[in-house]
Amino acid sequence: xxxxxxxxxxxxxxxxxxxxxxxxxxxxxxxxxxxxxxxxxxxxxxxxxxxxxxxxxxxxxxxxxxxxxxxxxxxxxxxxxxxxxxxxxxxxxxxxxxxxxxxxxxxxxxxxxxxxxxxxxxxxxxxxxxxxxxxxxxxxxxxxxxxxxxxxxxxxxxxxxxxxxxxxxxxxxxxxxxxxxxxxxxxxxxxxxxxxxxxxxxxxxxxxxxxxxxxxxxxxxxxxxxxxxxxxxxxxxxxxxxxxxxxxxxxxxxxxxxxxxxxxxxxxxxxxxxxxxxxxxxxxxxxxxxxxxxxxxxxxxxxxxxxxxxxxxxxxxxxxxxxxxxxxxxxxxxxxxxxxxxxxxxxxxxxxxxxxxxxxxxxxxxxxxxxxxxxxxxxxxxxxxxxxxxxxxxxxxxxxxxxxxxxxxxxxxxxxxxxxxxxxxxxxxxxxxxxxxxxxxxxxxxxxxxxxxxxxxxxxxxxxxxxxxxxxxxxxxxxxxxxxxxxxxxxxxxxxxxxxxxxxxxxxxxxxxxxxxxxxxxxxxxxxxxxxxxxxxxxxxxxxxxxxxxxxxxxxxxxxxxxxxxxxxxxxxxxxxxxxxxxxxxxxxxxxxxxxxxxxxxxxxxxxxxxxxxxxxxxxxxxxxxxxxxxxxxxxxxxxxxxxxxxxxxxxxxxxxxxxxxxxxxxxxxxxxxxxxxxxxxxxxxxxxxxxxxxx
Length: 696
Fold this sequence. Notes:
The protein is an alpha/beta fold. It folds into three domains: 3-143, Immunoglobulins (Immunoglobulin-like, Sandwich); 161-426 and 451-498 and 527-579, TIM Barrel (Alpha-Beta Barrel); 586-695, Sandwich (Immunoglobulin-like). The protein has 16 helices and 30 strands. The strands form eight sheets. It has an eight-stranded parallel beta barrel. A hairpin with a 6-residue loop joins strand 3 and strand 4. Helix 10 (408-419) crosses helix 11 and helix 14 packs parallel to helix 15 (561-576). It is elongated and about 90 Å long. The chain starts with a helix and ends with a strand. The model has no long low-confidence stretch (mean pLDDT 95).
């Protein structure tokens, strides 16, 4: 049948349909299509053969309700599994911010699946007269998805925030070299669902995996031209579609299979989502979707030059999240990930964008209010990356009640203290106590602070103690990319070293940072691979390194068995001791007749004084934590000595016939037996210990 005849049949069959829900919604009778554009003059639905990708005809959407264009195609004209895209006719005046162009095949912004990535065809770019070129041959297709899946008896673990231990991982990076994952499954959702991968997470003791972006994404033109790719995935093309890069055949079903396996092991799934920009980039970028659908409604344009975008993300464009149709699109995507894919929460990349008006950030912004009122989404774990590059872009501590936030001040304070910087002990105490200076307002709790010492963006833990300077030459940006303020220390030698003393100091520094992380109030986040001392060879911005630089090297496991065991013991300690995960901020005070909840101790055996806090030569601090049950048996004492010399630390009295026992020591083997303490303990240089009060 010719394309003209097929289109005629579709035109005779299509009905106006319903204005909701967004996207392509299949049923037993047919498929309802909805796309929002306030400026379109005609929207054409284009259908394609699922096997050949060849056209099966096209038809205009006949219904319109406000900005919603809609149509219903009864079976067999459309069904789950079919491929489709859109062409939008309307005003085309780029200098005025108007880019409607029926020559461009467009992705549905609410698509549940796509077939791959766009190519680098000139037809995608409007420069040099390419606006008239048809882009269909360069574009992936959207797939109509039936989300039905056999979840069995699987239920979300629903782990309280206070008990949460996050583990940030990249689906491919975690599994690509895993010896227990079948080779054909490495680098995929199904690989992460394999018993060997799941067992590692369970045995490590973490409660929740925070997956780096799994929304459909593509690589920037610069990277492709230089043989690189956007490995991290922070360059989305369809917010509700699982990335095809981690799938073998069916991204939706395979993502669901992964979630089911993780839930069966008691692990939550937190998805890192990118709703602040899209892969269309700046005005010279490819036309893929939103730009040609309704550019000025979906993006923030420069008022004086509407051809250009406000670039508050550093990625070329910025989503206008305060626009009603954008808020609706984002909420629809989030509900899809929860209801169809069963994820348990979200980490929002460059989250201030979601709260921006014109242009100020507002914790009461329309998006936050709508999210908080949504009966499905308000129960999810919500984590903000609380900064972007727009005006007043640093918003740590300013997100709504119920949100948690990546706390980079925790990261920087812990790094500075263990590097040996002066005047840091006070800041360290504040961070260990839950960062109440940032989060105590509006009824928020310590769990509002997601504490971390490393994350995907920056040095790995091994590199943090091995490099003073970034080594990003492989990114082909003349080593100018990535953060220059790393607060790292190389332990005296830049890069790899065969010196046993340097190696031991580096291992101790890693243990110091990890111990600090796990004894602090708030929610700890461990970066995948830090437990096996993963290195990126000094690259602190490996976003484009889809290779051995980024993939976990599991061959290090045997050599780093002691570090792995140390992490497991830290996780176990945190789970055993509720003092380390309180729901109220430490205040240094307690109810009448009860011990203070925390006491900050000087090595001389006294509470820290104002002079002690301001002593530039003091690099040691004790943190005495009262047990939840009351004073006496069960108290914890943590001593942090970041100084260059060994010192004697006088232990506080325990009372009630208890005695101090050293249960963790960053200068000893992880499996070392607990040791009874004397009235004072020798604390080696650059060492941390944990002591527990036990009855004799």
